[in-house]
Amino acid sequence: MKDIKKDIRSYTQDELRAYFVEQGQQAFRGNQVYEWLWKKGAHYFEDMTNLSKETRAFLKDHFVINHIRVDHMQRSTDGTIKNAVKLHDGLTVESVMIPTPTRTTACVSSQVGCSLNCEFCATARLKRMRNLNPDEIYDQVVAIDQQSRSYHNRPLSNIVFMGMGEPLMNYNNVIKSIDKITGDDGLGMSPKRITLSTSGVPKMMKKLADDRPKFNLALSLHSAIDEKRVKIMPFNEQFPLEDIKDALRYWYDKTGTRVTYEYVVWKGINDTKEDIDALVEFCKVIPCKVNIIEYNSIDDDRFEQASKQAVDAYERELNRFGFIVNVRRSRGKDIDAACGQLANKS
Ligand code: SAH
């Protein structure tokens, strides 16, 4: 039987050091390999040029470096790039590079498909196949950092976990990937520039609060009325708004940081005064910020972007109560790279 080689990136730095000692070599070789794997993002043992040829061959005989491959890249007229990312087992996810004049944001996936069932999201139509490993998330970030350097002569500045999947349902791997992205042994990015977005899984929001992360949290709210939210986000049945509010209070209590609410306004769904009033009430729960995002069509006639007047009414009313609100325009729509459009269509 053929031995299945172990992915060397599943080793911690200490484990790698110990491995080299076991092989009768010096421990610092483990540091060197670790640095190649994470800081330098090497995908091939051949590239580890400060190791001897023999050591490189030995590692290649005993390990693999599972890694992603950007299979296909689409570039929008606004500069947004959508990557079809092939995983080592042949599955595909998508990641997006979003450039603005001052920053480059990476939008990364955390799962292949999604187990939640938001009616307005294209990813929900793909069933959840599996969670991504920490290195598969990390690699998406590294690939976009390289794209940012080559297209815009600057490193990646921000990361949002708003690609495919529900990050809080792949908790451990997402946290491990962020540790690597922010760690000195990885990319050393500031956690303040990272935002994890959740559809609202109360138990996991509380767990996250307990872990006192330094990154930002966003909640995809879309309606502050249970009966309406359950129609567009059916899992709301299990996680009603009262539980989400409770988790938000817990979050604020532990972390002292505000949460961003993402909100799309749809015609005939959540465009009335009653909806606005409910959101205003919801905003009183903890310090927050509202991002009103544009609906990106996924070929479903139940959903249509609300009128400018309806969005303006939200903005006015939230402002009147002193809440921070941003109205966001979508990017990358011409290549189906905008929020909720990721469905491996390319
Ligand atoms: N599961 C996580 C992260 C992925 S979705 C979450 O729900 O937050 C990223 C954002 O895109 C969410 O705010 C989601 O509600 C939004 N979204 C999904 N489909 C959309 C669509 N068709 N148009 C605009 N935003 C959409």
Write structural notes for this entry.
A 10-stranded mixed β-sheet has the order 3-4-5-6-9-10-11-12-13-14, covered by helices on one side. A two-stranded parallel sheet has the order 1-2. Strands 7-8 form a two-stranded antiparallel sheet. The protein is of the alpha/beta class. The model has no long low-confidence stretch (mean pLDDT 94). It is built from 10 helices and 14 strands. Helix content is 34%, strand content 18%. β3 (69-75) and β4 form a beta hairpin. Bound molecules: S-adenosyl-L-homocysteine. S-adenosyl-L-homocysteine (SAH) binds at residues 118, 120-121, 162, 166, 197-199, 220, 262, 264, 293, 295-296, 298, 339-340.
Keywords:
346 residues, alpha/beta, ten-stranded mixed beta sheet, two-stranded parallel ribbon, 14 strands, 34% helix, 18% strand, elongated, binds S-adenosyl-L-homocysteine
